[in-house]
Amino acid sequence: MRTRILYVLFFCIFLCLNATGQVIIYSEDFESVSGRDIPVGWTSAATDTPGWIGCTTATISSGQYIVPAHTHFVGINDDRYNVNLPGHNNIDDKLTSPSFSLASLSLPFLQFSQFFAGQGETATVEVSVDGGSTWVYIDSLIYTGMPIAWQVRNISLQQFAGQADVRLRFGYSDLGNWQFGNSIDDILVYQPEDYDVSTDKVQVAKILLNNTPLKVVVTNQGAQVISSLDMNYSIDAGAPVNQTFNGLNIIPYASDTLTFSVNINGLPIDSSYTVAVYATAVNGNPDAHPADNQVSKTVIIGSSSVQRSVLFEECTSSTCPPCAGFASHYDPIWEALGANIPDSNFNIIKYQQNFPAPYDSSYNTYAGQRYGYYNMYGIPALEMDGSEEGPIDPLLHKLVPAYLTMTGNYIYNASVDSVYVTVTVTPHFTAVGNYRLRVALTENHYQNPNNLNGQLDYYDVERDMLPDATGTATDTFIDGVTKTYTFKTNVTSGNVHKNSHTFWGSPANSHMVAFVQDDDTREVLQSIIAAPAHPTGMPNVSAITDVFVYPDPASTVTHVTFGLESTQQVSVRLTNIEGRELYNNTELMKSGTHTVTIPTENLAAGLYLVMISTPSGNAVHKLNVVN
Fold this sequence. Notes:
Blueprint: E1 4-5, H1 10-15, E2 23-28, E3 43-45, E4 53-55, H2 57-60, E5 73-77, H3 78-81, E6 92-96, E7 109-116, E8 122-128, E9 136-141, E10 151-156, E11 167-173, E12 181-191, E13 197-202, E14 207-208, E15 215-220, E16 229-235, E17 241-245, E18 255-259, E19 272-282, E20 294-301, E21 310-316, H4 321-337, E22 346-352, H5 365-373, E23 381-384, H6 394-397, E24 404-413, E25 418-427, E26 431-432, E27 435-447, E28 457-466, E29 472-473, E30 476-477, E31 483-490, E32 510-518, E33 523-530, E34 544-550, E35 557-564, E36 568-576, E37 581-589, E38 592-599, E39 606-614, E40 617-625
Parallel strand pairs: 14-20, 21-22
Antiparallel strand pairs: 1-2, 2-12, 3-6, 4-5, 5-12, 6-11, 7-10, 7-12, 8-9, 8-11, 13-15, 15-18, 16-17, 16-19, 19-20, 21-23, 24-25, 25-31, 26-30, 27-28, 27-29, 27-32, 32-33, 34-35, 35-38, 36-37, 36-39, 39-40
């Protein structure tokens, strides 16, 4: 579409009504030019080269400013052209539009798409009505986290209604720092319909209990302030629940969250339902665009809920200057929250990345896979429980119920440089989904003197994932049925290098963080943390070596791992404290390491004995069962 400047007369307004009844005054999608060119009539004033340029994703993106595809647009890349060299760290560039007229409009708006990080940099919008002699500031963006997609902005131009010579100016400043950049596309100046609301999101968890309040997010897409809305919801297309929300004050393009007075209730547990929410009237008037009035969500009714442990996942790098500032701000917050301290209900995993410079020794492919899993577009980047569901305040998010009970046991055996992990997962709902258990081993603290950003200390960094970053499929959950997962791996320390899973210090200075994630939504359902325990020893008797029994205490199973120096007939038995045999596995075993799994789910809680017998010696271990 080419640029259009419409001098608005009565007949022109009639001709410029689009299919929805909006009056379009000016539009620019930057498709009429190619390469670095900007459209005729636009001007770029830059304090340093190249300033605002025409671009595509391929031509504007760099290591720290990766812009998602958006055909042809205009942008400025501070990451690429400002490398903290003298004279290159004070970018303050302006992009100015041609003149257009708002002479006959009463409620005009500006809409545009933008990709902007905003960490230590500013993006502004200004308007001039005197040929560019003076400018009125109307908007500024602030940092809300590294974006993963283009954002659509809507800004009122009502204060300039009736003016015949109007210009827009988009500003970008790096505030004297090495930062990211700003990109703009699809500029539209228009007057919207009077009454138009969009129903955007059903604000309830995917899993919930009966008697849960139903919330819905709505946005005023019209020109008039919304004071009342007629809203409805139905479950599985059943009889609708109707409610009129009065006393609202939703200004144009603002959003609000409405809570129905009638809760979701009376539904059989362990089943899924479709909740549909829709609007029928705005301020007592029909909605101008009913196509965006309805939104739906599938929910599962659980049987009970438990305390949530919030999981933070942070992607960062020792070669990223903004990451050092991020760490200096957020590391004290993690410490105040008690992150990775058992029973704090806050857990964290940090993944070191291989950019902007490929020199972070802690980077491994698992860290890179987690960055890609979340479709991140730069670092530092942070995820809380993997999705946008729930409050953004961690203390409030911790109050959101969870519907999984998890336990974890983490054993580190320094004598053989091995770790043993047992995780149990008990769901309080029934569902078939794309669920996965992921397990990370994190190093509590190390110092990296070879950093490139001035950050010496690093905390809670992923060193390994079990069995890998993909995790273990847990697709089917049945209410109350516990699943047990066990992992074993070797660990080493020292000589840390890229793509290794080596610890900087002793693996005793580590934690195991496990979490269950819905890969369809990326939501983390629950997480746990465990500090390393040292195995309660059995003596190395004769030809029996390196004996471990885990988990201990046991619930559904326990694993007996041991080594043999030679081929022998071996009996692994479980008895109660009175000597009554409850389990026996006897077979000829070759030299090497062996693991025997003993079921314990049908045993009463109490103390038991695990006995390993060979012709050349025996070993005995006490086992607690906590069913």
